[in-house]
Amino acid sequence: MKFTKLFAAGATVLIAGSTLAACGGNSNNSSSSSSSSKKTINWMDSAEIPTMDISKATDVTSFNQLGNVEEGLYRLGKNSKVENALATSTKVSNDGKTWTFTLRPSKWSNGDKLTAKDFVYSWRRTVNPKTASQYAYLFEGIHNASKISAGKAPVNSLGIKAVGDDKLVVTLDKRIPYFKLLMGFPLFFPQNQKVVEANGSKYGTSSKTTAFNGPFVQKGWTGSNLSWKLEKNKNYWDKKNVKLNAINYSVQKTPSTAYNLYQSNKLDATILDAQQTKNLKHNAGYTLRDTAATFYIQYNQKRKIFKNENLRKAISMSINRKALANALGGSNTPADSLTSKGVVNHDGKDWSEVVGDKESASYNPTDAKKLYKKALKELGVKSVSFSILSDDTDSGQKTTETLQSQLEENLKGMKVSVSNVPFKTRLNRSTNGNFDMVISGWSADFADPISFVDLFTSKNVNNNGKWSNAQYDKLIADSKTTADTTKRWNDLEKAEKILLNEEGIAPLYYKTEAWLVRPDIKGIVYNGAGLNYNFKSAYVSGN
Amino acid sequence: MARYLLKRIFYMILTLFIVATVTFFLMKSMPGSPYANEAKMTLTQQHIMNEQYGLNKPVWEQYLIYIAGMLHGDFGTSFQYSNQPVASLIGARLGASVQLGLQALILGVVLGVIVGAIAAVKQGTWADSTATVISIIGKSVPNFVLAVLLQYYIGLKLGWFPLAGWGQFSQTIMPTIALSVGPFAETARFIRTSMVDNLSSDYIELGKAKGLSKTEVIRKHAMRNSMIPLVTLIGPYAVALMTGSMVIENIFNIPGIGEQFVKSILTNDYPTIMGITMVYCIGLIVILLITDIVYGLIDPRIRLDESEA
């Protein structure tokens, strides 16, 4: 053994290290010095892209990519306003079951002509059980979709047809009131058959094996790497209205790293954790993003005590939601409705304001105590004890701790135990009804209250507590069939108010993310539901 | 030697097979499905999916299919990353972790040997105390704390190295330093202790009596003998470092394998769990084998064939 060699090796490493120190400072050439005088922005996401295959995507990261590199019949603007994209005109039959779209001439980024057949191909591919799309259920209501997914009808019997290159006819089995919103969701975008088939199982597993038709094209994503780029699509039909030349994306899993990068101008936006939110609240660029997710309590109605409405109300009114939101880290919003804040804007008003229950979802320990006494008398017991089931994540644990102390303090004699388990276990126990009280969360796929209120109809699988109300079920069923939009909105309003008033669930908080976004970046369209970021019209001011 | 090797390889394969079996059945007993959208899918849809992926078959049948695939070099495709073969997923991720682990190991061990040797030779002086304090700090401060401090002061305030990222050598320096602190502290303490022992042994006295210079005595005798037991320490360290550190990878945006493993377990990504477990397992047993062989080569008192005879 030659230790001199080892020493020499050590010295080399040290020298190499210190030499590189000198030139290491600005070696990251993909990011420019500041956001002024540029048409490129540096954006982040919190997770890797799982897939770029429209039929396979299930998560926000994929949808955010797909929404900017692909395009469908419509593109969603501010407040999920439906705007024409590939469709130039839409005709709906009187019964609402036949939709005829006229398409504008457009091209794929590789130069292929995009036709109505690309929509037909895409939809058939998604509902085909062989594709195993986890989102195929959103096609329910389109003629034969459910049967095809279950393998009980041939794929080509799906209610979609291309008439020539520029006409698309869709047949529904029943009216779908939010059909237009769905058409702005990447799942319903077209796919390039030639590219999909040429790549086989590799389709959508890297930038090179994916076809694009949106405002941007993706470059440099290799399947599981942490940085890639969106570049302006030269073949995009509306390229003159796309102002950015490029968006550099990187995956940031540690908020402190992201904030350091933001401070050194290597990132133009960063998500903030609880501590950063407290410290940076008053900084320029502080931005709150509603995520269209609500967290709420489900009471297991198979347990005798939770059949008692007064007890459920007493529990809900003993919860100080503001303190809970604070304990969770500041940027979350106390909730008094199931439909999340920032999802639906109806007649200029946020839907959560319209249906929110100011009484039973507000902190009122005095009334809670009275209701608790009443409940104990009705149940014929001296005290109640139960367990709260939740996730074993940081926020899951903070939630159960806060609820436990608030309930035991406000309702004397109540014994609360907690059980924090991994997400998959929580889901499993919820589905099997193996809980007393569970903290659940739900996020909307599209900007309509039905994506929330549908959950608590008697037969819905996600109604884990088995709360049931015949009038509620009827209102939801009616809202799905009526042709009268005013009646539909009234039904949805009445239904959610019943659910909240009867304390079928107890809303806790709306998940809100805090971000720092470089203030000179304008024109980003953000929607909480479905696809979040639309960068088509984003620009850096001063250019 | 050849016979010994063959025997060892047979046991390695047997170990791998047992690990694969145990992992497979443990993994299948985790609740839930591997579907990311599980919360929103109805039971019927989950049944349809299970049929597509063969997850509706009895567990023993799934096990046989998996083992058969594995023998053909097919580790299946990931659920988290739709359609990505597990082999290429691991391939893309393992490189960064191995590179970082090796760099940290070399840096930590080399510095540890130097500092530990100085401390032993200068036993009882300020140099010894300083070295002890440094190695205790190194042992007790978690590497992610050091990582965050390095990133903030060296990366952001001084701007000497890129804050995060992967691709250039300069980007590996701060994570290497953060990861090397553990092995550095351990090695320094280890070398100091065993060298203090050796320095008082007879053969050192003999060396001195022969008229060798102090440096020669230390370099050729004291150091050499103190280094031998270090080999046992380096083996497991090498595996621990090369299999990646989820926290360090996340702080420095390194596309490593550490986080993938944790995430695959949390999401019930069965093929990825199996794939990474196998890679870890192979890494560990190969390194243990190498350690044993190297041990026999450098220490004349150990002869592999004889111990097996």
UniProtKB/TrEMBL annotation, chain A:
Compartment(s) where it occurs, according to its Swiss-Prot or TrEMBL record:
Cell envelope
Signal peptide extent: 1-21
InterPro entries reported for this sequence: Peptide/Ni-bd, SBP_5, SBP_5_dom
Return one Gene Ontology term, BP aspect. Answer: peptide transport
Where does the sequence pass through the membrane?
none
Q: Which UniProt keywords apply?
A: Peptide transport, Protein transport, Signal, Transport
Cellular component aspect of the GO annotation: ATP-binding cassette (ABC) transporter complex; outer membrane-bounded periplasmic space
- CDD domains registered for this protein in UniProt: PBP2_OppA
Q: Where is the Solute-binding protein family domain?
A: 81-463
Q: Which GO terms describe its molecular function?
A: peptide transmembrane transporter activity
- Can you tell me which family this protein belongs to? Belongs to the bacterial solute-binding protein 5 family.
Name of this protein = Oligopeptide transport system substrate-binding protein
UniProt source species: Lactobacillus kefiranofaciens
UniProtKB/TrEMBL annotation, chain B:
Q: Which GO terms describe its biological process?
A: transmembrane transport
Q: What is its main location?
A: membrane
Species of provenance: Lactobacillus kefiranofaciens
Which UniProt key words apply to this protein?
Answer: Cell membrane, Membrane, Transmembrane, Transmembrane helix, Transport
Write down the Pfam families for this protein, in alphabetical order: BPD_transp_1, BPD_transp_1_N
Q: What InterPro entries has UniProt attached to this entry?
A: BPD_transp_1_N (IPR045621), MetI-like (IPR000515), MetI-like_sf (IPR035906)
Its transmembrane ranges are 9-27, 100-121, 133-154, 166-185, 228-252, 272-298
> What name has this protein been given in UniProt?
ABC transporter permease
Q: Which residues form the ABC transmembrane type-1 domain?
A: 94-295
Q: Mind telling me which NCBIfam families this protein's record contains? A: Opp3B
A cellular-component GO term for this protein: plasma membrane
Family per UniProt? Belongs to the binding-protein-dependent transport system permease family.
- Indicate where this protein resides in the cell: Cell membrane
Membrane-topology annotation of the record? Multi-pass membrane protein
